[in-house]
């Protein structure tokens, strides 16, 4: 008789809840409130970011990245609509709002209000976010 034992690496319920809380804090504390102390608790030393182009951003560079968004968009704020977690991935349906006051990514700030919807996927390696995919609605961003 042969017994095969299969051990899977699925996260426990508490790990999933922890991942959701970290993603929420990333948006609500790290981005909205610019609480840069939260960054060490949430992100790995370097994060592979997939958007219009792939790049690596370091945890040390993330506060400056967040600050640039706030400088270009007065009253910048993320809102989370839905969060789904599966294994080491957390999917987020969100939007951000703000008033575009300074040039950002080649687009002049004209004091126009924006409401941009986006989707994120965050991949965790143990306790930290190591990879992010983002897609946002370009048409609402540039109008």
Would you summarize the structure shown here?
The chain is of the alpha+beta class. The chain has helices at residues 13-32, 39-42, 62-72, 138-142; strands at residues 43-50, 54-58, 73-86, 89-100, 112-125, 128-136.
Describe the protein in words.
- This protein has a 6-stranded mixed sheet.
- The N and C termini lie far apart (68 Å).
- Helices cover 28% and strands 43% of the residues.
- The protein has 4 helices and 6 strands.
- The protein has helices at residues 13-32, 39-42, 62-72, 138-142, and strands spanning 43-50, 54-58, 73-86, 89-100, 112-125, 128-136.
- The chain has a single domain (13-142), classed as Nuclear Transport Factor 2, Chain: A (Roll).
- β3 and β4 (89-100) form a beta hairpin.
- With 143 residues, the protein is an alpha+beta fold.
Write the layout of secondary structure elements.
Elements: H1 13-32, H2 39-42, E1 43-50, E2 54-58, H3 62-72, E3 73-86, E4 89-100, E5 112-125, E6 128-136, H4 138-142
Parallel strand pairs: 1-6
Antiparallel strand pairs: 1-2, 3-4, 4-5, 5-6
Q: Got a strand count? A: 6
Q: Largest beta sheet, briefly?
A: 6 strands, mixed
What is the share of helical residues?
A: 25-40%
Q: What is the number of helices?
A: 4
CATH topology term: Nuclear Transport Factor 2, Chain: A
Q: Spatial order of the strands in the main sheet?
A: 2-1-6-5-4-3
Q: Compute the CA-based radius of gyration.
A: 17 Å
**Total domains:** 1
Identify low-pLDDT runs: 2-8
């Amino acid at each position: 008789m042969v017994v095969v034992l299969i051990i899977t690496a699925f996260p426990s319920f508490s790990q999933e809840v922890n991942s959701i809380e970290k993603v929420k804090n990333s948006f609500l504390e790290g981005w909205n409130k610019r609480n840069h102390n939260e960054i060490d608790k949430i992100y790995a030393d370097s994060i592979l970011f997939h958007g219009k182009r792939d790049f690596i951003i370091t945890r040390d560079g993330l506060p400056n990245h967040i600050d640039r968004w706030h400088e270009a968009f007065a009253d910048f704020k993320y809102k989370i609509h839905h969060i789904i977690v599966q294994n080491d991935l957390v999917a987020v349906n969100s939007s951000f709002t703000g008033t575009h006051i300074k040039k950002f990514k080649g687009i002049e700030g004209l004091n126009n209000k924006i409401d941009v919807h986006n989707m994120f996927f965050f991949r965790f390696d143990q306790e930290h976010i190591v990879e992010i995919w983002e897609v946002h609605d370009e048409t609402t961003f540039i109008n």
